[in-house]
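pasting for ref. prot 1 ->
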Amino acid sequence: MHYPIPRTLEEMTALSQQPVNGDLVASAIAGVTAICRAQGHSLAQVQEWVLAEDDLLDQKTRQWLSEAVAVAWSTVDVAAVTTGREGDR
């Protein structure tokens, strides 16, 4: 991955200044997942938020994103994000 996993909301916001590509999307998903886990949210809560109706994404895309969050949830090391270890970068 060419982008680090964001550790803060400020770092998440900074991603919006980058051109969108697959690595950026993966970094954003991993960052949101890690930040939500660190804040004590459950996977079910995050998936509920992702699947909620909105004007930005269609149902198929929200379903794909929900599945991507589940994969990230099981693979992102939240301790690395909250302690600032460099091994996840």
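and prot 2 ->
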Amino acid sequence: MQINSNYILVDTAKALELALINLKQSKILSIDTESSGYYTYFPKVCLIQINSNGKNYLIDPLKITNLKGLAPLFADPNILKIFHSAQDDIKALKRDFGFQFTNVADTMISSRLLSMEQSSLAFVVEHYHKVSLSKVEQKSNWEIRPLQTQQLRYAALDTAYLETIWLKMEEELKRRNLYEEAKSEFEFTASEDYVEKGGEGFHIAKFPDIINFTPLERRKILELLRYRDEKAKKINKAPFRVFNNDRLSQAVKEQPNEEKCMEWFGKKDGSEIYKLLISEYSDPIETSELSKRHGEDLNEEEDKKFQNAKKWRLRVMRIRRMEHSLLPSNKQLIAILRANPQNIEELKALHVFSDWKVENYGPSLLTALGGVHNDSMLSKLVSVRSKEAFLAKKRKKQNHSQKEE
């Protein structure tokens, strides 16, 4: 199939009206979005790419005030919508425009179920089409207008290959008896509501080399991150663009005077940061606090169930020879054990994960929460990869970790 890299820029109401005439006749749409998230604190969709019947439509939501015409297409159960990493795009489109989705396929989830070496779009395009996608424009500022020709070409290619890739993946998923599982995951992704994240917009454990700071220095890093986050939120700018991590590290390590702080961070911010650096803190952050995960705030009974759930997950991973990313997360397991469902119907009502997982994992998970593990409940499940391939990848990951250490 010849891939068309040309595009149709849709940046007026009339252009959208004309595009919708063609899109409404489609049975398959390949969709992607570009966001401002690399530049702004509050991300917004800056471009919507839709590929249909070999045509690449680039829809500009910053210039078109009314996109309601797209809603029926996205909600139509007779039109297949293909994404790569559907969760990100669908939640963004729900957040900004209130769109709803049915009949979705996700080539990223599929790549993981098919145990491909990587799950990035660039990798799957290379795998199926022997084409290397340029990622030069990946971190472009998509909010600035006019968009440049190279940005538009880049955006068009992000959807140009999805249909042919999905058709090949669909065939392989069916051949390996993984299609129903994949379909259920797609349906769950499409049905998830957008929920605004609460709390702080950062995790100190992810700060570069945080393990190498002293407990007191970590406390100062945390206070600087909080200050930066609040400023970033007020001016709607990505935090690392307000003050970069290297400069924050330098300030904590070198303890500059107020004059130097104002030189580094500006007069007002420098003065405030200097105050944070010289303040006395009685609550340093120990190394053990950095490794806290979901579950460490559980009571004794809940923690026992959580440990049982994690053992159950390892059993599933071993039996199915699969990646952890396809299994219920710690957050999902905790939501389940706290809700304490007594049967499959109650578990399904929680809407924590897909119906396939409820049906195929639910019985053994509910049993495991009580401390009883029954592998026979899982033995009928299809292995995601061969034992040899699973062990080879596991060894490769272990070797990589050892080299990094």
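The chain has three domains: 8-191, 204-288, 300-404.
Strands lie at 8-10, 28-35, 45-52, 55-59, 80-83, 104-106.
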